[in-house]
Amino acid sequence: MPRIVAPSMLSADFGHLDRDTRMVDRSAAEWIHIDVMDGVFVPNISFGFPVLKAIRKASAKCLDVHLMIVEPERYAERFAETGADIVTFHYEATGDVRGCIDRIRRAGARAGISVKPATPVEVLRDILPLVDMVLVMSVEPGFGGQAFIPEALQKIAGVRAMARAQGLDTIIEVDGGISARNAGEIYAAGADVLVAGSSVFGAADPEAEIVRMLGA
Ligand code: DX5
Ligand code: ZN
Fold first, then answer.
1. Which residues, at least 6 apart from 16, have a Cβ–Cβ distance to it below 8 Å?
2. Burial class of residue 119 (count of CB atoms within 10 Å of its CB; 0-12, 13-18, 19+)
3. What pTM, to 2 d.p., does this model score?
4. How far does the centroid of ligand 2 lie from the alpha carbon of residue 102, in Å?
């Protein structure tokens, strides 16, 4: 799978959401990452359906929605119907992993599952055949601008090995603390999609930063 960058709209300027979405839309980034936080699963609240809808209107790119909410099965369908192409939820956030995957898929979106830094990727072994993507968190979910946790590199390799052993081409996404400076080693560890918030939107030239990440 070719390298993909997914700029995280959490770091966009919400006073100019349309402008920032259109910037990503014309950039070399193929996906747009959308962080939904409920203030319960994580100690922060971001945004929900109206913002997703506005981004959907401004871009035809793959909308990659990262749910950091408890009981994601309650809202999975609605996110898919509002325009998400991929809906990713946290393993730690639900007692019904399989039910949540079913709901996302039935609503027509691809399904992803994510693990926090302290959760070993081995918990996902039996779930891998049911999902399109695994999202390895390389920071504690909740906030942009944190430092990359290096242990994520072994976790990426672990997911890649588990997928290969089962004959699966599971997409591996990594999220948190990523810039052109460390993108090369994260792709090399086996990642397909790198999420980047503060490094892209904080760059003097965000489109050039995306190109630098892809070539890192
Ligand atoms: C954190 C979010 C990330 C965040 C990444 O909980 O899941 O997507 O936007 O931000 P940076 O790239 O600044 O670490
Ligand atoms: Zn995210």
1. none
2. middle
3. 0.98
4. 21
As to burial, measured by CB atoms within 10 angstroms (0-12 exposed, 13-18 middle, 19+ buried), residue 205 is exposed
Is residue 18 part of the annotated active site? The answer reads: no
Quick one: which of 52, 96, 105 has its CA closest to 74?
96
Domain parsing of the chain, residue ranges: 4-214
User: What superfamily in CATH does domain 4-214 come from?
Assistant: Aldolase class I (3.20.20.70)
Ligand 1 pocket, residue 146 CB under 6 Å: yes
pLDDT (tens digit, 9 = 90+) per residue, 101-132? 999 999 999 999 999 999 999 999 999 999 99
Q: What is the pLDDT of residue 143?
A: 98
